[in-house]
Structures are given as C-alpha cells and as structure tokens.
Amino acid sequence: MNLDKISKNDATRIYTVFNTNLQAYAFRDISKSPIQPSDNSMYFESYDMDTDMTALGEWISQQTTTQIPLYPFFIKMNQIIGGSRDLHLSLSFAKNPKNYHTAEMYTINPTSFYFKDKKIFLNIPSSIASKTPSTFFGTTLMNSLTAKINTEVTQINGVSAIQFITTFAKKYYRLKNENGAVTYFKKAFVLSLYQYVPFEQSDLSFVLTFSDGETISFESKLFDAGQVASNLKGDVADFESVRSALEDVRKRKLDHKNRITNSTKVPHFSPLDIITNEDFKNLNRKTGNLYDYSLSDIISCGKRTIDGSNVNLLVVKSFSPDKINDFLTVTNQCAQLFDTNKDPIVIVLPLNGGGYLICEEILMKTLSPYSQYNRRYIARISESSENVMRNGYAQSLIDPKTGKTRTPISDYVYTEKSMGSWYDEPITDLYGSVEFTHTQDSYMETENAQYQMKNVRSPNEIIVFTDHFCFSACSLFAKHFQEKKAAILATYSGLPQSTYRDVGESPTAVIEDVYINNGNDVTLSSYGLEMGISFLPSLPVDTTSEVPNEYKVHHPDNYVEIESFDETESSITAFLKKGLEIYNLYKTNCKNGTYKLDSKCANTDTEVLGYICNNGVYGNSCEVVGCVDRYVMDKDGKCVLDTTVIENGALRITIIVALALLVFV
C-alpha cells in the first residue's frame, strides 16, 4: 500500500481544494455540537472538522521529503470525511491516471455474519467475485470455517462478537444509527473496493472464538487488480478471471453513472457506490414469476394470498434507475394493480441507497396522495455554496412566497452581484455555542403523480419495512410516511437487541465537487479524485423547526426479527406474513395521529376528510386529514395550491442520490 507516492506540492494543492470543497458541506458547523433527541442525550456524536483539517495541514507541512506516501494521506482525508458519520460525504478515485495501487485495491474476507435468536453465526459466501472462497483463502481455512457454520461466534478479537461487530461497523460503515451501520457491514464485509471503505491495516486481522471454545484466525485479503497473480492462492487464470469479473461490474456501474450524468444539465450527484459480493450474484439473477411488474433491481410489485388473506407487495430497491421514465412506468403499473383491490399494501425497502428525488416523490404521491406537503431545504452560507448556486443549482429552488425559481432559468452561470435576499440575508442558528449560518428556506420543483389511485389506502393499510440502512431519498420516503403518520413503519435487520432505531438516514441533497469550481480552478479531478458533498438538507414538516432531518430520529412503530430480504418466494412470504400481523394489530388499536378514510366523510374541492385516531381509537366525526391532488397543506393547516409543480413534464430534474450499498459507479 505504501508503494504509492505523491509530491508534497501536490498534497498541499489537494489539501487546499479539499478544504475549499468542504466549505459547502452542510453540516460542517452543526456536527460540532448537534442537538440531541429528547430521548437520547448522547446519540449524535460531535465532530470538529476544522480541528482535523488544521491537523492535516500541519502533517503535510511536517513531511521532510519531496515525495510522501499516498496511503496515510488518503487515510487521513477519509478520517475527516468519516468524522461526521455521513455517507453522502465521500472521497474517491474517479480515475487512476497515475496507476495508484490504492485505487485498484479490494478488501476480501472469507465470511460475513448473521444474527439468529440474538446470537451470531458465520455467513460463508458460496462464491467471491464469481470464484470459490478457497481461491483467495485456501481450502484449509475455508474447511475450518465451514465446519463451524452452525456454531455460535461468541467473541471476535477478544471481545463479545456483538460488541465487536457494532464497534467495527460504526467505525467503517459511517452511519449515525448503529443498526444501519451493522446492516451495511453484513452485506459489504466480504468484498468492497478499498478506497470506499479504507480499513486501517491494524484492523485487518481477526480471531473468532466459538461457543465450543475453539478459535479460528484469518486476515483480510487485499486484492490488487493492477498487480500480478500473486494475489491469489490459485494460478494466473484465476487472477485474470477475478480481475475480469471485477472490471465487468465496475464498468457496468460506471455506464449507469454516466447515463445519469448525461441525462440532466442541472447539478446532480450520481451514485458513487461500493462494489460488494452481491453484485456478482446479481449478474445473472432472474426473478422468475415473483412479481407482476418489475424493473430489475429497482422497483417490483405483485399480489399474494397468505394464509387466506389477500395482500399487495411493493419492493423498492433503489430510486436510481437508468431511465426515470422506466421507473414511472412501473410505478403506474403497480398503482393500477393495487387499484384492482382494497387489500393492504406491504412495502419493502431492502438496502435502498436512494436516487432521484422525482422518483421518490411521485411514488409517494401515488401511494399516499393526501399526505403531501412542501418540503423545505436550506444550504450553508459559504463562497463554495454560492458557486454551486450560481452554477445552476438555484434554478431548481422555489421561493415559497412567490412560487418562482430563486434565479432565472438559464444555461449560463448566474453573474448578478446579488443572489437575492434568500441568500444575501441568511439566518443564523445556534447549536450550543456554534453558529450555523444558512439560506432562507426554499422548496424544490416537483411533479404530480401520473396515475391517480382510486382505492387510496388509509395509513393503517400501508405497512413499510426498512432495514435501517434506507438512505438519502429512501429515508425521505420512509420519514415522510412517519412524519405525516401516513403508514405503519417497521424495521428489520440491524441488531436484534438494539433499543434505539431509525427508519432511515441522511435525507439530504448531494452534489459533486465539480459544481463548486467555475471551470478555471484547480480541481480534485486533476488528480483523479472526486468528492460527494451533502449540500442541501431537508427540514421537518414542523415549519417552526430549522433543525435538518439529518439530525432528527424517526423511530419505527415495530421491529421484526427478519435478517434480510431476498428475492425468493420464502423471503417474500416471511415479509408478507409479518406485514399482515402488523396490519391486523393496527386494525382496531390504531396509531395515534393516523386517519381512516370513509365514504361517510365527503371531501371538499380541496380537502380530504376522514376519522382521526386519538388514544388508539378512531373518532366519529369527519375531520380534514389531507389535501386533494395539486394542493398541499400550509403551516396553518389549510389546503393551498402547490406552486412547486411544473406542468406537462417540464421538470428540470433535481436529484437526491446516495451511496447505494449494492452499486459502484
């Protein structure tokens, strides 16, 4: 790893651009002193990015040679990236012009882990990058591990297995909630591109202790796709096969990213994601007759009869399709399928890393048309943020008072001296003694649902399952349901014994660093690097709160002990059974704040009426529960015309994308 060198002058230039880019980071201030949830005063970890940036600058200046090792420099930058536990904030090699080994390295482990009855067991893959695990680790180790597949793992590296996995996952998989980090760890531990999960070398050795007292040791394999066949236990043909498989997946993901990048001219951030071993399983996977309608690995739906009860199924694995219209087509097909009956809808969001805001919004408007509201967004005030706004981002933001875009629609950089009062007269909030200065609230452009459901479900008829990982646009989707009490939310996976759960994380719009510079500046891309930056935080439904949703916890209503979702009939059946159990639970003992639609409550031209649940019982008088299509509820509870909707499909697409666990681009 230390073979890679970089000049001290280049390191200094990279540091300067890196620090400039991070001025646009939305939570650079808030992370120093985050407001804690009322029920957990130590939940959000504080992190001072400024202190670590100063320390990095001093480390560079202290180097006594003209060439310094790239590895420790890259690790130190990634520690800064990871300090605020925000996966949107990323640093990676977009290209590898200098043939750095660090950019070509993969971390491979012979096993992952799974939970059963609050105990931990080995989860040995049948293949790794399309080869048997023994190709990388030899038959002796793999035979020893296989012999222990049904024996509980009690300790890892001398500490309890549960504690080790929790600590390790939080350190490297960088989500604020430990359950999301553990879900991510379980899927990504076997194989990942090193630059996205840059493990410290001291954390690459493992000693497993089993309940029978026996131990097995192994070390992570660092596979250098740019090196020779000495990477493997096998021969050159094995090496070339693995390298070819890795490159095929990498190219497939890169093509996906490029299609997204070329589909819109406004600021966007294509998924910059991690290859995992699951990608190789997905290459030839067929879903057969599991669904009535499906866009593979994105969105699928169907109907089932489970134990005599009819139920609808919707599986959304990503909001980031190659073509947005394909997503919208399947959304409409699923809505029409659900309109053929009045049975409950079970929604599963497995390892969903987010995607386009338009896909999330239209799916939400289709399934829950009466719970809509104008989402508010803000941005940190800085020179870098202003550059982003001037380079086109502000054209997608709406003035809540006038319904007009913050800057005129144009293909050119906005050069007027004043950005307008929304930016030039910012708001400063205090987080402890830390000041956070940000723009005034803005809305984003939206579109209406293309298909209006006739059999709109009441909240207790929609059951949403998330695995805690549910990220970015996915978390917007889940948190919208929870904030508006428009569904019953349940989580699965994570840590079975955990008592503090969140339905999703990081409902924040992101940008690529290229939108900060104006074309003439030195950029990280000059060195083959690129960044993703959390830029535009979403705000709560409660308009009196300016605390971003990034620092809000939305607890689920239920937790079910299901380890993971797989596209098999048995896995689908398990989720639908649990969904029906939850549906029956809330049939009579309703969730406070939810509502029940009833034909006895006649809607007005703008308002939807129903019975609201209080103290576990639905009321008997009709009350306003939402607004009809094209209307949203304002802060006074009145239904007003939605001024953010762009008619006739003319939306200039703004997207929220995430680090999807199963994608690398």
UniProtKB/TrEMBL annotation:
InterPro entries attached to this UniProt entry: ClpP/crotonase-like_dom_sf, S41A_metabolite_peptidase
Protein name: Tail specific protease domain-containing protein
Gene3D superfamilies named in the record: 2-enoyl-CoA Hydratase, Chain A, domain 1
Originating organism: Entamoeba invadens IP1
UniProt-listed SUPFAM superfamilies: ClpP/crotonase
